[in-house]
Amino acid sequence: MQRNYRHKGTIQQLGSTLSDRGQRVQTWTTFATVFYSRQDASAGEVIRGRQMAGESTHRLETHWIDGVTNKMRLVDANDNRTYEFKAVRDAFDNRRTLQIDALETT
Q: How far is 48 from 44, CA to CA, in rounded Å?
């Protein structure tokens, strides 16, 4: 099945650095740059998402990438929309397609 990954974005993970004062500061760092598809979650998916992993407003899909977790986020390269990952799964159990339920935060 051919996928239409027409959006470009950056998957980011939370890390920390030291400030000039020696204090830890949380920062988002690039994990991977991807092309992905995005669709609004249906009302039923939003309700199920609340029960399972918090509210999800979108379903994102991209090619498989090892190491992606629900503690990451995606920032769209075009409009800077930010999506917090709520659930991450192997869409077809073949390690080819990554499906992500996400909450838009901006």
A: 6
